[in-house]
């Protein structure tokens, strides 16, 4: 890892700490740590979520991705049939 990546991670950790422990708002913490509010919000949600919640979210994402993959496979098979006719 380079210095820039480490600095960004440190800034993110510091911003999460500012929100969770010191009670600052996400916008204030994001501004003072020079990161986007959206990125900080997502990091706080991930930080505060239990492992069971994270696992459930990942399983839902996985099932959605498998559905998309099967839909794409079906579409490819359909296109192959159209090409061979």
Number of strands: 0
The best one-word shape is elongated
Total helical elements? 4
Radius of gyration, in Å, reads 21 Å
The helix-strand sequence is HHHH
Helix content: over 70%
Strand % is: under 5%
Q: What is the distance, rounded to the nearest whole angstrom, between the alpha carbons of the first and last residues?
A: 53 Å
Instruction: Tell me, rounded to a whole number, the average pLDDT.
Output: 88
Spans of at least 5 consecutive residues with low confidence: none
Major sheet details: none
Structural class, from secondary structure content?
mainly alpha
Describe this structure in words.
85% of the residues lie in helices and 0% in strands. The protein is elongated, with a radius of gyration of 21 Å. By secondary structure, it is mainly α. It contains four helices and no strands.
């Amino acid at each position: 890892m380079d210095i820039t990546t480490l600095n960004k991670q440190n800034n993110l950790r510091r911003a999460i700490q500012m929100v969770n422990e010191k009670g600052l708002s996400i916008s204030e913490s994001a501004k003072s740590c020079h990161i986007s509010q959206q990125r900080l919000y997502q990091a706080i949600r991930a930080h505060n979520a239990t492992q069971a919640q994270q696992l459930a979210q990942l399983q839902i994402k996985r099932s959605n991705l498998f559905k998309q993959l099967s839909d794409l496979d079906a579409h490819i098979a359909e296109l192959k049939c159209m090409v061979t006719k």
